[in-house]
């Protein structure tokens, strides 16, 4: 393979990694590609996840915006209070993967909003690297909110549920 072909192949590979980030809503991917004994390519593609964070509270603020056009500070203040990650009852993801709310398709979910759970009860499963990881309840309480979709991607530290 000529140097030009390798360069074009590397560029296509990096573009494919960037597309993978976007499609799976990942924040970072790192890959090492070895071409031979003394030739390799180390690639780390990441994206800034700070932009989507303000977008999440925006839909909640949009309906209130026409009612309070004269008070822009009132719209900005509720956003941090509604952040589920800062809630004291938030159960966060211990890993990056795909969240499943039920053991297999067609079966009832592990928990629903309003269910009472005991510490150690399975809340959901996160698939990571083809391994199904049961996520236990860290404390007893009532499931107030489920913040992930069945089959949706989750990031490390992302809020999964609120248990009070």
From TrEMBL:
One of the GO BP terms on file: fatty acid biosynthetic process
Keyword set includes Zinc: no
Listed name of the protein: Biotin carboxyl carrier protein of acetyl-CoA carboxylase
Biased composition, class Low complexity, residue ranges: 58-88
GO molecular function list: acetyl-CoA carboxylase activity
Residue intervals passing through the bilayer: none
Positions of the Lipoyl-binding domain: 88-164
Reported function: This protein is a component of the acetyl coenzyme A carboxylase complex; first, biotin carboxylase catalyzes the carboxylation of the carrier protein and then the transcarboxylase transfers the carboxyl group to form malonyl-CoA.
GO cellular component, one term: acetyl-CoA carboxylase complex
Organism: Wenxinia marina DSM 24838
